[in-house]
Structure of Gamma-aminobutyrate permease:
Amino acid sequence: MAENENRTVRRELKTRHLSMIALGGSIGTGLFVASGSAISSAGPGGALVAYAAIGIMVYFLMTSLGEMATYMPLTGSFAAYSTKFVDPALGFAMGWNYWFNWAITLAVDVSTAALVMQFWLPHVPAWIFSMIALAIIFTINALSVRSFGETEYWMSIIKVVTVLVFLVIGTLTIFGIMGGHATGFSNLTYKKAPFVGGVPALLSVFVVAGFSFQGTELIGIEAGESETPETSIPKAIRQVFWRILLFYILAIFVIACIIPYTSHDLLGSSASDIAISPFTLVFRRAGLAAAASVMNAVILTSVISSANSGMYASTRMLYSLANEGYAASFFGKTNKRGIPMASLLGTTIVGLLTFMTSIFGPKIYMYLVAASGLTGFIAWLGIAISHYRFRRAFIKQGHKVSELRYHAAWFPVGPILALVLGIVVIVGQDLKSFAQLDLQAILVTYMSVPLFLILWSYYKIRHHTHMIPLDKVDLTPRTVGESYDPADAVKQEPENTK
């Protein structure tokens, strides 16, 4: 019993945690800041189409993940599913790539938190704020699973309330009730609007929208620590899709109505310049003088929330990799509170070292960030492929879809559409560099793709793995938080007793 307790994570995340975490995970600097550059690049129509399309793709991915997670809620989520339903080599590459992505993202977020704090305290060295942020995040994750869930829940509420207040004030500004005069809808067709820049501009906004929605897949990792995954995951997915689409589409619509796409402030929108967040611009347009400080506080919450989620996700992925035999076994142990402390410490050290390179070696830091850039999209492709194989294996082995606790929408259209859109987004990251044959820019942008292929090839060549035949896929349901051994990936045939 003691050993089992040492190896299993606690089931402490409630339905309200999962719903709000998945929702809040997709509301961050991508909406608060980068949405402005999306409107300036492709016009209001292009931004709306891109965010709507990526939102639909993410919905299909979440339903795919939900179907697998309710049937088999494993800690390690989609990396474990890649091992089980496709090929252990894919699971190995997916797991390490995703861990690396969030460990680097953790360092990026603590650096960004320092930039945000310097808005108020410009003379304090940035590294002090970063160290404080990292210490807070480590403590939250070290206390208990529930402390992580509660922290994310309340930070997500702050972000959601901000968006709701923004929508109300923005609507009042459009009709002239606030801000002095009505802006109406004229900016939607101003000059070349609603669509600007053609297909290349639209494709570039697909990339921005894709980064904005990254983090929704965390619901699959959190399934391993949910008290009731069979009910909480489907409920969270149903709620999150409509809320995300509603928040993003309405928010971008309000911004586009009030601020013309030609605004130089929108052209300069970036995560490092909080003062020209489109939310800040709209609040100022409505006559709210303290808009910049309020939005700075909200964006600080978003950055800390992202870092907190990154710490949780990478810790659980490393824990899962250890239990699958892909990492040192001591990373697969938990303490009495159900926290994989070795994995937490290992992730924190990598995040700290990465952050230190931002001080002593900016070029190294840039390459590390670039190497993790596309990993989230690669994870999405893995989810789509795993679900397609899972459902086909399920039917092939004589099961009926009615046996599943949750059914993914529009199979096989959903995973196939998500797969195609995911590839389009990855390829379209920086087409301009290919046109100009800028090899350095291509390397920086697409570095995570060859790194993924190297990991996949290494495991495949060393262990001689193959794609698992559909009739050999092991579909044995497993318990919440249970680890998975890749040696069990192929269903064992009964021995011949004759």
